[in-house]
Specification:
Elements lengths: L10 H13 L4 H101 L28
Amino acid sequence: MATLSLGDGGGVDTLNGIANYLSNGGKAATVLSASVIGLITSPFIAIVDITNAITQFATSPFEGAGESISSLFDGLLTAPAALIEAGSRISEDAIIAVFGETIAGILALPLTVGLALLSLYFLATFLDEEETGNLFPGLPFDVPVIGADEEATDDQ
């Protein structure tokens, strides 16, 4: 039995589908009823499509903002946690290589916590330092040839 296929809605595809249906023994009444039903339902389908487009237009900035906030939190929280996890695995392998598995199991947590606190101390010390030079971080003087020489302003 022949099936009526109207294609994707283009004019040539629809006419070819109707011609193929009728040449394979299809009934013209089926084509006519499908056409009438299509004419009746097409305004409603168009209204639904327009409403859907307006809704999508109105909500897409919020969806994009939600995705960007998700990416921001992922970058701020998950990436550093993965870095700490990778560092702890490397520390664990090094401790096991030096002390063996028995002592490494006992020392792994205190050494890892100590390394994390030492890293935070170095970071806090660096951030707390008021003056750094332009040659090497931590040196309190500038090399005059490198960078722009700045003059003091009234607010300094």
